[in-house]
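PAS domain S-box-containing protein, pasting as requested.
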Amino acid sequence: MNSPVKLSAKVYFLIALSITISISQFYYYKKSQERQSLLNQFFIVSSRIRNETAALKSQVLLSYFDKNIRNVPLLFQENLKTIEFAKNLINKYDIIPDKKSEFLKIMNELYDVNAFGFELYLSSDNEDKKNILEVVNYLSKNYESLNLLTMELIEYTDTIAKKYERANLLFSFASVILIISILSFVIVPQIAELEKLNQELNASNLLRESIQDSSPNGIFFVNNELKVQLLNEKAKEIIKLLSNKQITEGEDLSNIFLEKDLRALFFKNIEESKEKKFSHDYISINTPNPYHFKILFYAVKNSIGNLRGTTIIFSDITTEVISQQRLKRSENYFRTLIDKSHGIIFSLDHLLSIKYVSPAIEYYSKYQVNKILGRPFVELINNNEKEKILSYLIDKINLEKMDNSITFSIKGLSNDIVLLANCGVIENEETNLKELILVCMDITEQIEAEKRLKEQNKKLREIAWIQSHVVRKPVANALGLIQLLQQSNDLQKNSTEFQLNEKELYELLKKELWNLDEIIRQINEKTKEI
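Structure tokens follow.
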């Protein structure tokens, strides 16, 4: 993975080096041309000064013999102007940087000598041979100075030419080394890399073709002109099911799908994939054995981002659709069972808020379902049982308590309801959080029946106690009194100490019978209460 990055760094470095060498070579070439141009210009100016000096010298000598001096002043003036031009040229440009001051000194001397000679010539009489010869000597000295200056210019020009020639040779040698480096470090590795990529591409193409042929999905490609390319056998089978036509490569997509809606579906998704890079749709084939397909549309672009076409993939989702339909029917079936159930079913989230409650809650508690959805479940519980049910539900979520059922009561709008609940824990597939399902049965009537039964048992025990203890006393007393009455005559005859009044015995018997009657009445009242 790092090889392309290193290779790119080498390429950038060599390109930067090549640009630097080219700019440097161009700069030195430009400077050498400018320097050469200045040297040529100065050489021309110095040659003109030398030629004008030679012409002036000859005119001065001629005027000495033929007395004609008309051309001499003009030549002096021209010579002075040329020297002045040469001085300005030396000041403005560093023609010979090392000898600029020396050249200026020579030019100043030339200017002064010529100016002095011009004044001396103008002040001299034609008969004054001495002054004329002195002017000629001055001009000869100027000519010698100019010759020396010209020789130095020629020597300096040769030096500069050799210097720039060496620089050009150096840059040329650097360019050769750079070309060799590019060949060695860039071109040859790139060729090897391209060869490797070509092999990988061929392998990738073979792999793609094998995948297309072995893929359970139908795959084909349409170019920008909507011509079919690169389709596998599965795609041919599916398209034949859709259009009842045998598809071939190069065929126009609009000629394959003659049905208007089907053609519009494909064209719409192809256009959407160009904008979004991806699009999908679903299609079903209504036959005795129905088929369902998910169709994926992928926009294909080349390396520079230009659209090449669209890859279309048919994915057979018949099994999934049938499974979903069955699942939907099962859900509807169980939903009907839950909605029609006499029991109350609660679904609580991980915060113990009510997510779902069956419609039976309205029958038992008069609460409307939409009024309690989202509310905390414990708000429905009686205050004295909130802590118990909250602890139970938390233990269920944490799987710390596995009791199967719990009894609690909720506050109804008209009366309290006693519920027997069974709790189950499920995990939400989307949030991975635990939720609770409470299946509750109304046992209010059973609880009340149990209370009534307990009260009846209590009263029956009281009646039994009365029958076994309270009734026994007056009955025993009455039986004893009756026995005394039967034996009263014998007792009166045989015993003088123990004599009973028969009337008193009847009074006592009557009293005990009244007590017995009262006890029987109490028993009857308690029996009525039962």
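Note for the archive: Residues 138 and 147 are 14 Å apart (CA to CA).
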